[in-house]
Design goal:
5 strands, 224 residues, single chain, transcription regulation
């Protein structure tokens, strides 16, 4: 008996520019493994639509009327949200504060609108799978760009982090932008063991993915 076909990735598109929104909807809707669950033109509508449709991914613009994309992301995917929705922020503005605030708000990834369609589609599939869009090299660049602006929280520090010394070591390497294979080589352990450590870290700290782990480590002053 053949396996049942995989359910298509359901996507909500939110952008206040009709031409851009139509283009995104057309590109996404043309994919055999995706379907557009809805579209809207402002952040408030995005929150309402996503809560109603429960898509796999929301493609979210940043600058929009009524409610901006950062706040909409926070309402859908931020800390304390009981049933978060995965958000891929797509914007024309490549500014440090937008990148950082989007990820801190709970976004699973960040893309520029001038990225080619295949990168957008890869980003949607990556985020839908539960992974962060940022690969290790992008993480290194991102951290290098805004890390100096991230102030460690006053109550930060190792004593406040419920991790074992080994887990803390792995977290610091994640924050440095190392991949699982690089962490395995650095610690002389297997990649499967690294995956286990990463899973434990995310679970203990109640983080969704590696992007949040990077932000957490810098906010806690665990790396500099």
């Amino acid at each position: 008996m053949s396996a049942a076909p995989a359910r298509p990735v359901r996507v909500v598109v939110c952008d206040d520019q009709m031409l851009v929104r139509t283009g995104l909807v057309t590109i996404i809707g043309a994919q055999p493994d995706m379907e557009v669950a809805g579209e809207c033109a402002d952040g408030r509508a995005a929150v309402d639509l996503a809560r109603k449709e429960r898509p796999d991914v929301v493609v979210m613009d940043v600058r929009m009327p009524v409610l901006d994309g950062i706040e909409a992301t926070r309402l859908l995917a931020g800390s304390g949200v009981r049933d978060p929705v995965k958000v891929l922020v797509v914007t024309t503005f490549n500014l440090d504060e937008y990148v950082y605030e989007a990820l801190r708000a709970g976004a699973s990834g960040f893309l520029l609108k001038d990225a080619p369609p295949d990168r957008l589609l890869h980003g949607i599939r990556t985020v839908a799978s539960g992974a962060a869009l940022l690969d290790p090299e992008v993480t290194r660049q991102l951290v290098g760009r805004y890390a100096s602006r991230i102030r460690p929280s006053e109550d930060g520090g190792d004593r406040e982090v419920p991790l074992t010394p080994r887990e803390l070591e792995v977290l610091r390497l994640i924050a440095d932008g190392l991949s699982n294979s690089e962490i395995a080589a650095a610690l002389v352990i297997s990649q499967e063991t690294v995956k286990t450590f990463v899973s434990r870290i995310l679970s203990k700290l109640q983080l969704r993915d590696r992007v949040q782990a990077v932000v957490y480590a810098y906010r806690r002053g665990l790396v500099s």
